[in-house]
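Below is how a single chain appears once it has passed through the pipeline. First comes the sequence as given, then the structure the pipeline wrote out for it. We keep one example in the README because the format questions we get most often are answered faster by looking than by reading.
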Amino acid sequence: MGFNILTASGDKDIYQGMLIEYTVRPLFGIPLHWQTEILKIKKPEMFMDKQLKGPYKIWEHTHLFIQKEKGVLMKDEVKYRLPFGIAGKMAHSLIVRKKIERIFNYRREILNKLFKENGNNFD
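Resulting structure:
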C-alpha cells in the first residue's frame, strides 16, 4: 500500500498532542518519514491531525463522525498542498491524488470488512 503506521498505540485512545509516526512512499517507492500530531479532539464527533514532518507542504486531516438514524457517518476533510510549485502540481495530478484516493479506498475496504464481520453494514 505504501503507507505504514509505525507508532504502536496498543489499546490507548488518541489524545491531543499525540505524535504518530508513519512511513510513506509517495513517489517511486522511496520511503519517507511522516509525522502527524493530533491537534484537536471532540469525542465522539471528531478529531484532527496535522503533519509536522513529511512529504506535504501542508496536511490537515479532520475525521468527522456524524450520528445518523441508522448509525454513524464517517467523513474526512483533508486540506493538503504539495511542495515544489508547478512540479508539485504536476505530481499531484499525475500520481499523488490517485495515491491518496487509494489510501482512503483501502481504509473503506478494511472498515467494510470489520463491520461485516461483526454483523453490521457499512457503506
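The mean pLDDT is 88.

See the next section for the split statistics.
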